[in-house]
Structures are given as C-alpha cells and as structure tokens.
Write a structure and sequence with these properties.
Layout lengths: L10 H4 L20 E7 L3 H12 L4 E4 L15 E2 L10 H25 L10 E5 L2 H16 L5 E4 H7 L9 E5 L3 E2 L2 H14 L3 E3 L4 E7 L2 E7 L2 E10 L18 E12 L10 E3 L4 E4 L4 E5 L13 H14 L7 E13 L5 E4 L5 E5 L9 H14 L12 H15 L1
Parallel strand pairs: 1-2, 1-11, 2-8, 4-13, 11-18
Antiparallel strand pairs: 3-7, 4-6, 5-6, 9-10, 10-11, 12-15, 12-16, 13-14, 14-15, 17-18
The structure holds flavin-adenine dinucleotide.
C-alpha cells in the first residue's frame, strides 16, 4: 500500500496523472510578461477555468501558482457534480447557483475535451443516496421531501430497486434516492485538460511561482510581484482557494474563510470485485467509480487547520463506511490515501465578484463544490470583466454579503 500523505512532494509523485494526460515541460513558461490584461492567482480548477474562458475572449491572461496546477485542493477532489445530493434546506440561493453550473457542465466539458483532446471522464450515470438500514430510511425520506419541495426531480427507490440498480450493495439496503442529473468528472483529468486548453488559447501558466505581494497605484491594484518578477495587470483575480486569507490579499477584505480538511482514498476495482456504476452516497461516505477502475471513497470533514496528516481515525471511518455499503470492497487494493483543504466560508458558499478594491476580483471559498461550480464561476468572472456587471445566480455571492451582515450585527450591538 502506498500512502501519499506528504503534501510537499511534487504533485506528479503524489497523485500521478493518468497515462496519456501528462503534458510535459511545454507547460512551464519561463519568461514573465511585463503586462497582461488579467493575472490570476492560483491554478486550481477555479483559476484555470476562469483563465481559459478569458483567453477565449482574446484577453492576455497569466496564471500564477506557487506549486503545480491543481496541487492545492483541486486534485484532492472526488469530482462529483452533485447539486441535488448536496441540497440542504435554507440554501435555495446556493441551489440556484449549483443547478445553473450543473446545466453549464455539458457544454463546458465538450469544449474542454474538444480543445485539449483529453477526456475528463464525464460520467452521467447519476447519483444514488442510499439508506443502508431501516433506521436510516426516515432520514432519507425527509431529505427526499426537501428535494421535492425545492423542485428537484429526484426519484424515491425501494430497497429492491436500489439493489437492481447497484447489485453490489449490501443486502440490507432499505431505500434510495436517485439524483439523475448529479454527474461526475475525474479532477485529475480535468486539471490536465484545463492546462492544455488554456495554453492552446494562448494563456500563460507559471507554476512554482508564488505571488508575494499586490501592487497598488492610485488606490487600485495594478499588478503583482512574484518570485520570478513583476507583472502588471489591468485586473487581478484571486483564486487562491483555502490560502486566500494567508496575508497576500489586503486584510481589510476580512474574508471569512477557513480550511476544512478532507481525507479520501482510492480503491482499485477489478473483474473479481466489480464496481458500482453510480456515484453512491451513504450517511457516512460517498463512492465515486472512475473509468480507470479506481473507486474514490470520500471524505472526512475536519476542522484541523492546515494539518495534512493522514490519521488512523480518518482512514478507519472511510474503510468502515465503504465496507458497510459494499462487501466486495474487502478484496479491493488501497491505491492511494490523501488529504486536501476545502476553502470554506462562514456560510459554506463561494465568494465571486468584486472585492471592493478597484482592479481586484475574488473567486474563492468554493468549499465542497469547486468542481461543480467551475463553469458558473468562470462565466460570472468573464461577464464581470467584459461588461463590468455580474447578473444571474452568481450575483448573490459577493463578499459584500458578509460585510452587510457584519454591519448589521454591529448596528444591532450598538442599539
Ligand atoms: C477530499 C475532498 C473532496 C472533494 N470533492 C469534491 C467534489 O466531489 N466535487 C466538488 O465540486 N468539489 C469537491 N471538493 C472541493 C473542491 O476540491 C474545491 O472546492 C476546489 O478544488 C477549490 O478549487 P480552487 O481552484 O479554488 O482551489 P485550489 O485547487 O486549492 O487552488 C488554489 C491554488 O492557489 C495557489 N496559491 C495560493 N496562494 C498562492 C500565492 N500566494 N501565489 C501563487 N499561488 C497561490 C495554491 O497553490 C493552489 O494551487 C472536494 C474537496 C476535498 C478536500
């Protein structure tokens, strides 16, 4: 068993890209441009998606990452596009954002695969939420009721119907919900494809190039300083994920965010063990089968700061969860174990839009849904940069929602 717990290793060693997606040294640009239209801080799924989209509008774009593309959090993701399965009561605005992004995914995928000539393993078998015993059925029914009230077209399944759909599940499975529009991609392939597609549109990608400070002039951000030199930019997009509060951005922004650690593992399936077809959620874990035979088992939710340690408790919870759902997992080899840090805001929703400082935009805080929300985030930032305005579902997710809350709390306290 190989434990990939050391986050200081280059990503290629930690989570190898699948055969055929390695894109070689051509991606490593050496010369910094003196000036670009847009500089993006962070080459995760969010920064790369935005940059790719902007490069398609003919803008000069450069992306800077202190490590390798995706190695922040994006490569740690499972890749679920789970707008319905994720729905919680009271989060109707977020649901609208998630559904809009889910609707954009097929075109995003087709364009990306077409331009990069790489598959991102977009699988549209849907997601099954299952009750593994009778005590879980009522909670699942409640969830289905919430989904129905929110207008989601999900389907209640009996235990027999769930077993028909997924014969490998334990016989005790008592009920399920099919979310037919909750699909998935492979984040490793997604990052690889975004890198290639960005470069093919003339965008620049500087890996191993930390941004060390922002440059201001006349009250606006006008460029950035990196380990490789200075780059002026008309607009800077901060897409630095869980690291958006580590001192680079002006403290006055007061971004309410913390890293929320997740441990996950990959099992190897084969002819003998079989593999599920759907993404499967139990109360404990989710399972995501990939076309290369890996079965991703995720993921813990831990408030542990930036401690990347793989813990016995974390791995135990994942293994126990998969064993409870899928008896054949006993025979599956553990291929890799890893951890990542979800960029999590105080309301678990992303921050997309103006920062309040001229020239600086924010695209961060995507918590458990950065893969799902990549298309709509790219669309919103593209709209903001090209028209000066942001409309649609993303318009409710600016930083100002927290500042308004803080102001009203202060007013209430003073009253
Ligand atoms: C275990 C786990 C499972 C998940 N599963 C899913 C899922 O199934 N579906 C889903 O939608 N989401 C999922 N997520 C969430 C998803 O991974 C994140 O929301 C998403 O990756 C955030 O992308 P990002 O581009 O904002 O951040 P990142 O991928 O972290 O990218 C930010 C980048 O900024 C760089 N950076 C930071 N500071 C600087 C600096 N000063 N200079 C230069 N570069 C800098 C970092 O190096 C990093 O590469 C999961 C997360 C975890 C941990």
């Amino acid at each position: 068993m190989t434990l990939y717990a050391d986050r200081t290793l280059p990503v290629g060693e930690r989570l190898k890209p699948p055969a055929g997606t390695s894109t070689g040294d051509t991606l490593y640009m050496r010369e910094l441009p003196a000036q670009v239209d847009v500089a993006v801080i962070g080459a995760g799924v969010i920064g790369l998606s935005i940059a790719w989209r902007l490069a398609g509008r003919g803008l000069a774009v450069a992306v800077f990452d202190r490590g390798e593309a995706g190695a922040g959090t994006s490569l740690a993701a499972t890749g679920m596009l789970a707008a319905a399965a994720e729905h919680e009561p009271g989060s109707e605005k977020f649901l609208a954002l998630a559904l809009e992004s889910q609707r954009q995914w097929p075109e995003f995928c087709a364009q990306l695969e077409g331009e990069s000539r790489l598959s991102i393993d977009h699988r549209n078998d849907g997601t099954l939420l299952v009750a593994l015993g009778h005590d879980e059925v009522e909670r699942l029914r409640f969830r289905h009721e919430q989904q129905r009230r929110a207008g989601l077209e999900t389907r209640w399944l009996t235990g027999v119907e769930v077993r028909d759909a997924e014969p490998g599940l334990r016989a005790s499975v008592a009920a399920g919900i099919l979310c037919p529009d909750d699909h998935q991609v492979d984040p490793r392939r997604l990052v690889a494809a975004l890198r290639v597609a960005l470069l093919s549109r003339g965008g620049l990608l500087f890996q191993g190039t930390p941004v060390t400070s922002l440059e201001m002039s006349g009250g606006r951000v006008c460029g950035l300083l990196t380990s490789a030199g200075r780059c002026r930019a008309k607009t800077i997009v901060a897409a630095s994920g869980a690291w958006s509060t580590d001192g680079l951005l002006p403290p006055a922004l007061d971004i309410p965010m913390r890293p929320l650690k997740g441990q996950a593992l990959a099992l190897k399936t084969g002819r003998q063990t079989g593999s599920p077809r759907h993404v499967i959620w139990t109360e404990q874990i989710h399972l995501a089968p990939k076309s290369d035979g890996r079965l991703i088992v995720g993921s813990t939710m831990e408030d542990a700061g930036f401690n990347p340690a793989i813990t016995a408790g974390g791995v135990l919870a994942l293994l126990e969860g998969v064993h409870r759902a899928l008896p054949s997992s006993e025979e599956m080899e553990i291929e890799a174990v890893w951890s990542g840090f979800r960029p999590t805001t105080d309301d678990d929703a992303p921050i997309i839009g103006k920062s309040g400082i001229s020239g600086l935009l924010l695209a961060t805080g995507h918590h458990r849904n950065g893969i799902l929300l990549a298309p709509i985030t790219a669309t919103a930032i593209e709209q903001l940069i090209t028209t000066g305005e942001m409309t649609g579902a993303a318009a409710s997710f600016g930083l100002e929602r927290f500042q308004r809350n803080a102001a009203s709390t202060a007013r209430a306290a003073g009253a």
